[in-house]
Amino acid sequence: MTLQRPPVNSLNLDLLKEMSKSLDEIAKNKSKAMILTSASPKVFSAGLDIMEMYKPDLKRVEEFWTTLQEVWFKLFGSNFITAAAINGHAPAGGCLLAMSCEYRVMTGGNFSIGLNETALGIVAPNWFMDTMTNTIPVREAEYALTTARMFNVEEALKVGLIDEVATDKDDAIAKCKGFIGKFDRIPALARSITKLKMRQAAIKRLQDGRREDLNEFLQFVQNPKIQKSLEMYIQSLKKKA
Ligand SMILES: CC/C=C\C/C=C/CCCC/C=C/C(=O)SCCNC(=O)CCNC(=O)[C@H](O)C(C)(C)COP(=O)(O)OP(=O)(O)OC[C@H]1O[C@@H](n2cnc3c(N)ncnc32)[C@H](O)[C@@H]1OP(=O)(O)O
């Protein structure tokens, strides 16, 4: 699955709906595996589209958040094998997508990956945190989350946020295929049940608290102080360009 929403693959409602549909198709056509990557030469995904949260239409922003939850359920909780070929920056929601896969290969270069929410004055939702603690040790996750740490490729490899480094996108995809090939001699049902048991606690936490998570998000986007911060953040991103 190749993300292709220039310039930075920010996750807006339309892209999330497309992802959700594609994940359904992959599950339905009984694909063995999926590799998630990006069509951009330098950004895997810039995370959530800030414009979806800035001065939002309430009905749309509710659909936006529930679709994001759905994409996470379908990706994190998939039966099929998942790997991410991270060929560029992966902040926040971009990191969430990569961590929701079972294996991550990142191309070398001046790219970074991590959950930077606290730097924006935002608390990452529990399921973002659960996804991180499913990937790297709890102590490292707490440190990274509280300090909004963006890891460079070497740091990400050292902490286990990524599994391998690749020279370029083709190499990243080849390495993801190498990971997928490891399952050729492992019974598929045993593999998928084991994966889902490992992920069950995180999945159940969001299933049980899904409405509450949505309400927290809706309160968050309707808070005038948050709107002001988002406005300043958008300006800072635009000034940079
Ligand atoms: C308990 C609580 C429960 C619920 C409440 C809380 C819930 C809220 C939780 C929300 C969780 C949030 C998750 C997120 O993902 S927020 C998004 C965070 N993302 C970022 O901070 C990344 C910002 N972008 C960048 O750092 C760079 O763009 C990037 C990715 C490194 C690429 O750099 P570069 O190639 O130089 O590109 P530009 O910066 O020049 O950007 C080009 C263009 O794109 C616009 N843009 C960039 N990122 C975003 C984005 N995330 N959304 C929308 N638009 C974006 C940028 O402004 C430029 O626009 P222009 O018009 O100038 O071309």
UniProtKB/TrEMBL annotation:
Give the pathway: Lipid metabolism; fatty acid beta-oxidation
Q: Which organism is it from?
A: Danaus plexippus plexippus
Q: Please explain the role this protein plays, according to its UniProt record.
A: Key enzyme of fatty acid beta-oxidation. Able to isomerize both 3-cis (3Z) and 3-trans (3E) double bonds into the 2-trans (2E) form in a range of enoyl-CoA species, with a preference for (3Z)-enoyl-CoAs over (3E)-enoyl-CoAs. The catalytic efficiency of this enzyme is not affected by the fatty acyl chain length.
UniProt-listed PANTHER family:
ENOYL-COA DELTA ISOMERASE 1, MITOCHONDRIAL (PTHR11941:SF45), ENOYL-COA HYDRATASE-RELATED (PTHR11941)
Q: Which domain of life is it from?
A: Eukaryota
Q: What is this protein called?
A: Enoyl-CoA delta isomerase 1, mitochondrial
**What assembly does the database describe for this protein?**
Homotrimer.
Major site of localization recorded for this protein: mitochondrion
Name the reaction it catalyses. Answer: (2E)-tetradecenoyl-CoA = (3Z)-tetradecenoyl-CoA; (3Z)-dodecenoyl-CoA = (2E)-dodecenoyl-CoA; (3Z)-decenoyl-CoA = (2E)-decenoyl-CoA; (3Z)-octenoyl-CoA = (2E)-octenoyl-CoA
